[in-house]
Design brief:
Elements (H helix, E strand, L loop, with lengths): L41 E5 L2 E5 L9 E5 L7 E7 L8 E12 L6 E9 L6 E8 L7 E2 L13 E9 L4 E8 L21 E6 L12 E4 L19
Antiparallel strand pairs: 1-2, 2-3, 3-4, 5-6, 6-7, 7-8, 9-10, 10-11, 11-12
């Protein structure tokens, strides 16, 4: 679906050594990589296999797919749900998972947004852990972020700065859920939708070490509502 919004592109510069990578022409598949209901996928490569986790398909909370190359041997694990058991704070409707493996412990952390039990019109962000990439993942009993008065929290994205070993979580405050019309529910830009960031415990990935900060917000006089999540990377 097309959304006529301003696109924000966020670049962060870090003082990192320069790396040289060989360039090669990319092959574009003429067919969908996954030709089924598998939205908002998060990817992680482990031992030369790619694993993908998606928004709920109404049958599984977090469906899983695997691939050796994304051009062949693609498969959705139809009987595999990464989040078999929901925590009590959510009624379901799981959105946009994100996956990371902690280098200090080897633990896999799955972040996700779920409908709040307190206010079903809004989402909170939770975390679940597993010793294996396919899970099942055990959710923490309490959400990481809710911020319901501001509209809830969605689109979690973990980021590991490898040199100091600092782990962060980035997410969006979902002011769009508070109303205002339009395809995103906030066409009049009356509610803020900032991107927020906070450092996580690098050994557990399921608790914060400090309060969150806003790293990007829009100008309500010139910009429409922010849609979609942020991705960070080193350059």
């Amino acid at each position: 679906m097309y959304f006529p919004h301003t696109l924000f592109i966020l670049f962060l510069s870090f003082s990192q050594p320069s790396f040289s990578f060989p360039l090669s022409k990319r092959t574009v598949s003429s067919l969908p990589v996954i030709a089924s209901n598998f939205p908002d996928p998060a990817f992680l490569e482990i031992d030369k296999t790619f694993y993908a986790f998606s928004t709920t398909n109404d049958k599984q909370n977090i469906p899983i797919a695997t691939s050796q190359s994304f051009t062949s041997n693609r498969s959705i694990l139809k009987n595999r749900d990464a989040l078999l058991k929901l925590p009590k704070w959510t009624t379901g409707n799981i959105w946009a998972p994100a996956i990371i493996r902690l280098p200090t412990t080897g633990l896999f952390i799955l972040y996700f947004s779920g409908t709040s039990e307190t206010d079903p019109s809004k989402h909170c962000i939770g975390a679940a852990t597993s010793r294996t990439i396919l899970g099942p993942y055990s959710p923490s009993p309490n959400p990481l972020i809710c911020d319901l008065q501001a509209g809830g929290a969605i689109d979690a994205s973990p980021f590991l700065d490898p040199r100091p070993g600092t782990l962060y979580l980035i997410w969006k405050t979902d002011g769009n859920s508070l109303g205002g019309g339009g395809p995103c529910g906030n066409a009049d830009s009356s509610h803020s939708t900032p991107l927020r960031i906070a450092p996580l415990n690098p050994r557990t990935g399921t608790s914060f070490l400090a309060n969150a900060s806003t790293i990007l917000d829009r100008d309500p006089e010139h910009d429409g509502p922010v849609d979609r999540s942020a991705e960070f990377g080193l350059r």
